[in-house]
Write a structure and sequence with these properties.
about 80 residues, mainly alpha, 2 helices
């Protein structure tokens, strides 16, 4: 894989992580305003956004790792 393609892929991963967390926070903020609660749904949004971000990060970086971390299966 060329270096520029790897750089673009990793930049996309960064945007995905940032967008997931920000969408969770903004969504929690609007739900809090709608229901009249204080920081309850903002905290839920942060936790949910972070969970989605790390799961997506794992799924996007896994193909870049190749065979590392998958012990050798020699028979």
């Amino acid at each position: 894989m060329p270096t520029w393609a790897l750089a673009l892929r990793l930049m996309g991963v960064g945007w995905y992580v940032a967008a997931s967390v920000v969408i969770g926070i903004v969504g929690g903020y609007f739900v809090d305003g709608w229901l009249g609660t204080t920081p309850v749904f903002i905290i839920v949004g942060v936790i949910l956004g972070t969970t989605v971000a790390f799961y997506g990060l794992y799924r996007m970086v896994q193909p870049l790792m190749g065979d590392q971390g998958q012990g050798s299966k020699e028979e």
